[in-house]
Amino acid sequence: MSLDSRLDSLKRQHVDLEAQIFQEDKRPRPDAALLSRLKVEKLRLKEEIERVRGVTAPA
Predict the structure, then answer these.
(1) Would 59 be classed as within a structural domain?
(2) Residue 14 within any structural domain of the chain
(3) Other C-beta atoms within 10 Å of 54: how many?
(4) What is the pLDDT of residues 26-47, one digit of tens each?
(5) Cα separation of the two ends of the chain
(6) DSSP labels for 3-59?
(7) Does 22 map to a domain?
């Protein structure tokens, strides 16, 4: 998988997690544990995106 396609995949996953977090947070009684796990995963993806961007950035 090329770095560009990896970056696109990570961005899609990040957007999907954002949507899941939004949907869960809208519920009358959101599951705090689930929200926490989703937010941790979203942060992990954001860090991976930044790492991949650093590799693909022109020198």
Answers:
(1) no
(2) yes
(3) 8
(4) 999 999 999 999 999 999 999 9
(5) 22
(6) HHHHHHHHHHHHHHHHHHHHHHHHSSS--HHHHHHHHHHHHHHHHHHHHHHHHHS--
(7) yes
How many domains are there within the chain? 1
Find the domain containing 12 and state its range.
3-54
Cα-trace Rg, the chain = 14
Q: How confident is the model at residue 55 (pLDDT cuts 50, 70, 90)?
A: confident
In-domain check, residue 12: yes
Q: Could you tell me which residue, 1 or 48, shows the higher pLDDT? A: 48
Entry pTM: 0.84
- Alpha-carbon gap, residue 17 to 34, rounded angstroms: 11
